[in-house]
Design goal:
431 residues; alpha/beta; FAD/NAD(P)-binding domain; D-Amino Acid Oxidase, Chain A, domain 2; 2 domains; 9-stranded mixed β-sheet; 6-stranded mixed β-sheet; globular; FAD-dep_OxRdtase; oxidoreductase activity; FAD/NAD-bd_sf; oxidoreductase; FAD-dependent oxidoreductase
């Protein structure tokens, strides 16, 4: 699906605190050290690392900086990986799972540095609650908390009873949950714009409305073609998540774009004091996750619902509102001021795809909803690797070894087959 800019109805775009200069598309013959495709968290993270290392870099963005998933997601910061550590241990072994945890923790520290140094406007707030949507599960949650403390030294998790959760969230539809004090929430577009501002200040070039159409070998280097220019470079970094195009080759078969939707209410006034009293963000345990948080001016930002076709619901606000009212029926009279949607990239195992599809070419995508924390750091590592940092290359190997097979059915049948499977899991949420 074409992405011409920030989605219509985006509260993030309306409230962005950072304005970038004009970033025109390239023209003619351009020479650089590294070409980065995509100006989301991954691409900007790579460009910032490269520019600060003194490597010439050009970023090609098909639409606008942060206009993909990076600038319009739920803004939730989830530590760790989308799959928990026990799942990773069962798939890749205890040693590799520990390396992946350390990588994620380094990503959390990296995000903290970005928020302090380049994007304080993102307005980070601590606290993330995962709420159980079915009864039972307290024992499993307690075992998870204990395992994380004993094996990984994680002391940030605590069990939340049903009554305490209802008091905090302002709804009694959940059955308890887990508070992660290392998690939190922020304004994701301000983070992306702050990163872009730092990339420009470090001397790199960002080009908007400049989709990369193809790449090919030229002599000992690589040439990337746009509709207006040819970029000659030594190395190529491909990002784009749910907007990966044919330029990614067969790697695109391992990332599926699905559509996710968000709304924002009018300011809730006094009612805001009874919802998410702790100031944390919340997400539930449904396969199609509901996630929500309060904004600084007392609105409720709520994400819910997915579609697996290339079209959107005709009434985005109404589509998401149905999920909102199942959790907060008392908000039926509240006006929805903003609603938007767009694609996010997922992989079959819900682990990110980090690959080297050809010599001198690297790719990262498919964060499966975990990109706010992981993507800037993965991009940073890709940039450091492209600048010759062997330690960064070693850190990326743990991600490259994660099994991320292609979706079944090939290019033409993968979507209907995946739709059938995902729809089944979505139906289970209602049972």
């Amino acid at each position: 699906m074409r992405n011409d800019g920030h989605p219509k109805g985006s509260w993030y775009a309306e409230t962005a605190a950072i304005r970038l200069p004009d970033l025109p598309a390239p023209e003619g013959e351009v020479r650089t050290g590294v070409c980065v495709v995509g100006a989301g968290f991954t691409g900007l993270g790579a460009a910032l690392a490269l520019a600060r290392a003194g490597v010439p870099v050009v970023v090609l963005e098909a639409a606008r900086v942060g206009s993909g998933a990076s600038g319009r997601n739920g803004g939730q910061v989830h530590p760790g990986h989308r799959q928990d550590q026990a799942w990773l241990e069962s798939r890749v072994g205890a040693g590799e799972a520990l390396r992946l945890w350390k990588l994620a923790e380094a990503g959390r520290a990296h995000l903290a540095d970005l928020l302090a140094d380049v994007a304080p406007e993102a307005g980070y707030r601590p606290g993330l609650i995962v709420a159980r949507h079915r009864p039972g599960g307290e024992g499993a949650d307690a075992a998870h908390i204990d395992h994380m403390a004993r094996v990984y030294g994680c002391e940030a998790l605590s069990l939340v009873s049903r009554d305490a959760l209802a008091e905090d969230l302002g709804t009694d539809v959940y059955h308890g949950g887990v508070l992660d004090r290392d998690g939190g929430h922020l304004h994701p577009l301000n983070l992306a714009l702050g990163m872009a501002r730092a990339v420009l200040a470090a001397g790199a070039r960002i080009c908007e409305q400049a989709p990369a159409l193809s790449w090919s070998r030229r002599g000992g280097g690589i040439e990337v073609a746009t509709s207006t220019a040819r970029i000659a470079c030594d190395r190529l970094v491909l990002t784009g998540d749910g907007y990966l195009t044919a330029i990614a080759g067969t790697a695109r078969d391992r990332v599926m774009p699905i559509n996710n939707f968000v709304l924002v209410t009018e300011p809730l006034g006094a009612r805001a004091d009874r919802i998410l009293r702790s100031g944390a963000a919340a997400a539930d345990t449904r396969f199609v996750v509901n996630y929500f948080r309060k904004t600084d001016d007392g609105r409720l930002l709520f994400g819910g619902g997915e579609t697996y076709r290339q079209t959107y619901p005709a009434d985005l606000a109404g589509y998401v509102r149905r999920s909102l009212l199942k959790i907060y029926p008392g908000l039926a009279d509240v006006r929805i001021t903003h609603a938007w949607g767009g694609s996010v990239g997922v992989t079959l195992p819900r682990t990110p795809l980090v690959a080297a599809p050809a010599p001198g070419v690297t790719l990262a995508a498919g964060y499966s909803g975990q990109g706010v924390m992981l993507a800037p750091y993965v991009g940073h590592l890709l940039g450091c690797e492209a600048a010759g940092d062997e330690a960064a290359s070693g850190a990326l190997e743990s991600l490259r070894r994660l099994p991320t097979p292609a979706f079944p059915g090939g290019r033409f049948l993968r979507r209907p087959l995946t739709m059938a499977g995902l729809t089944w899991y979505a139906l289970r949420d209602r049972l």
